[in-house]
Amino acid sequence: MLKKFDEKIIDTHAHIGSWCADNVDFTEDAILDAVGKPIKVEVGDNMETDYVEYIMVSNMSGIDLKPDDSPKIDEITANTEMLDICKRNPQMKALIVGQPGYGKARYLDEMIEKRGSEIYGIKLHPNTLHLNANDPRYEPYMNVARKHNLPVLFHSQDNYSDPFYIYETAKKFPTVPTIMAHLGMGSDDNHWYAFGILQTALRSKTANLYADISWLSPGMINAIIYRGEEYTVKHLLFGTDIPLGPYGDPSFYPNRVSEVKSAIIEEFGKKSGKEIIQRIFYQNAYDLFFKNHK
Predict the structure, then answer these.
(1) What angle do CA 71, 75, 78 make, to 5 degrees?
(2) In terms of Cα–Cα distance, which of 150, 87, 91 is closest to 120?
């Protein structure tokens, strides 16, 4: 199946499990229907066949809430489910979820001690936990990440997940790669705000921040590439948030890849554009999640 494809992709943001906000419950099939085989992608005037080599997945049920605002299932159950799904589907790689304020970081530490070769990072979602991302209760989870050399993916938006709050926590753990999902979800103003924080952290070397580009328009993606120095581009990651939103339809996935790649080639030219695409769609994520994984 993998002998004939043009480009490899690593998608850094995906989910299985339930999400009460959209009244959905996704199994691994929702992801496999979209990326379980090579996808046809139109880049400018050219057709190519791409393959999503790895997709980083977390269990939404572990960050979703019951009516009393407590997590729907506990950390151990959520992460055991996720690891077992990934074991059945080697294309999927697990980001285990943490529940600061409800769970215990030592549960994640113990799980990594037992099944560390199956774990590629930690996922935290301040908005659903109703706990500001700079709260000290995140620090034991960051300590676990530091101990095991794992990146941490924070949902970033406004309110509890404010990118500046994430930066404040990340500064306390400067060796931990800390990813702001969606580069501040919402309007372009939100993205520019998060981008400013990303550049501040990288220029000052006060935190090792990254961002995934899920939910950014192609024009916004080009704008931040244009404004960012080379080292900033090395901290941008392709991600989709599949299967939320339009990604519930498997046909949307190749359309998203097509529109982003085409916009980059049109803006930066074929040679430079392909170099940027290779970094954002694959190399940056490979270096972050896989290069030194044990």
Answers:
(1) 90
(2) 150
pTM for this entry: 0.96
Measured in residues, the chain has a length of 294
Determine the Cα–Cα distance for residues 11 and 254; give it in Å rounded to an integer: 12
pLDDT digits (tens, 9 = 90+) for 16-38: 998 877 777 888 999 999 999 99
**CA torsion through residues 37, 154, 76, 110, sign:** positive
**119 phi and psi, to 5 degrees?**
-115, 130
3-class SS at 2?
A: coil
Question: In this model, does residue 1 exceed pLDDT 60?
Answer: no
CA end-to-end span of the chain: 27
CA distance 149 to 158: 28
Question: For the purposes of burial, counting CB atoms within 10 Å of the CB of 156, is it exposed (0-12), middle (13-18) or buried (19 or more)?
Answer: buried
Give the pLDDT confidence of 164-211 residue by residue, as tens digits.
Answer: 999 999 999 999 999 999 999 999 999 999 999 999 999 999 999 999
Q: DSSP string covering 228-288, please?
A: S-HHHHTTEE----BTSGGGGSTTHHHHHHHHHHHHHHHHH-HHHHHHHHHIIIIIHHIII
**Calpha distance 207→200 (Å, rounded):** 9
- Reading the block at residue 91, the tokens are 């294309």
Those residues with Cβ within 8 angstroms of residue 110's Cβ, 6 or more apart along the chain or in another chain: none
Amino acid, res. 192: W
Closest CA to 49 of 31, 29, 35: 35
